Structures are given as structure tokens and as C-alpha cells.
């Protein structure tokens, strides 16, 4: 059974920092692309950052230079370091694990989400 469990969300003032963590189990962690997505009420879930099995990273333009995604294959953990937080970063943040097969089908898993609120 695959589980992705996020932690580290909370309330932070603008300009502050938070570090989100995601613990993965039930998958061969090292072969999945791991990612962080976020969603606000009434909006679609949007990509924040991804890290490939080889360690290549990709970021949404809105977070480049402020957020850093990393992973620890030995611990089956993925992290999102968020600095210089802005009120518009307020959202529920979801951990994602994704694997694409040769026939282009995808296997996706999601965590339950963790709330991040940036407010003074």
C-alpha cells in the first residue's frame, strides 16, 4: 500500500520560511519522480516543484529562487524548503509520486496535503 505523508505546514509571516517534508512508503522511491503541488479553494492543483529520479529539478516560475526541492533516497523522503514566503503562497501543499511507463501510461500517488498559510 502506497502512502505519502506530508508534514511541516503551518502559519508563517510574509518573508518567513517553512520546510515541508514528505515520507513515502510502499513504492521503490528512487525510481519515481517526486513533486510538490499546491491548491487554493476554487482553483486547480498546480505544480510547484519536481525532482526526477536522477535528481534534476524543475520549478514553477512563481517560486524559482525562493523554493528548493530535495530528496533523500535512503530515507524515502522528499523536502520543500520555502523561503521568502508571500501571502500568495498560501495553499494546501500536496506531495506527489509519479512514474511513467514505456506505453506512456502514468502511475500517480498523492498525499493528504498540508496547509501553508502566509499572513501577518
Give me some keywords for this one:
about 120 residues, mainly beta, four-stranded antiparallel sheet, 11 strands
Short description, anyone?
The chain is an all-beta fold and 120 residues long. It is built from no helices and eleven strands. The protein is globular, with a radius of gyration of 14 Å.
- Terminus-to-terminus distance: 40 Å
Provide mean pLDDT, rounded: 96
Strand content: over 45%
**What proportion of the residues is helical, as a percent range?**
under 10%
SSE run: EEEEEEEEEEE
- Overall, the morphology is globular
Can you tell me the residue ranges where pLDDT is under 50 for at least 5 consecutive residues? Answer: none
Write the layout of secondary structure elements.
Blueprint: E1 3-7, E2 10-12, E3 18-25, E4 33-39, E5 46-51, E6 57-59, E7 67-72, E8 77-82, E9 91-100, E10 106-110, E11 114-118
Parallel strand pairs: 2-11
Antiparallel strand pairs: 1-3, 3-8, 4-5, 4-9, 5-6, 7-8, 9-10, 9-11
Report on this model:
It contains no helices and eleven strands. By secondary structure, it is mainly β. The mean pLDDT is 96.
Amino acid at each position: 500500500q502506497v502512502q505519502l505523508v506530508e508534514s511541516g505546514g503551518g502559519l508563517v509571516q510574509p518573508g518567513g520560511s517553512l520546510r515541508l517534508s514528505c515520507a513515502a512508503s510502499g513504492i521503490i522511491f528512487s525510481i519515481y519522480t517526486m513533486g510538490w503541488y499546491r491548491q487554493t479553494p476554487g482553483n486547480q492543483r498546480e505544480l510547484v516543484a519536481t525532482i526526477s529520479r536522477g535528481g534534476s529539478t524543475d520549478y514553477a516560475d512563481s517560486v524559482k529562487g525562493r523554493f528548493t526541492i530535495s530528496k533523500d533516497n535512503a530515507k524515502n523522503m522528499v523536502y520543500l524548503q520555502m523561503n521568502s514566503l508571500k501571502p500568495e503562497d498560501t495553499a494546501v501543499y500536496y506531495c506527489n509520486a509519479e512514474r511513467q511507463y514505456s506505453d506512456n501510461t502514468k502511475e500517480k500517488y498523492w498525499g493528504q496535503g498540508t496547509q501553508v498559510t502566509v499572513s501577518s
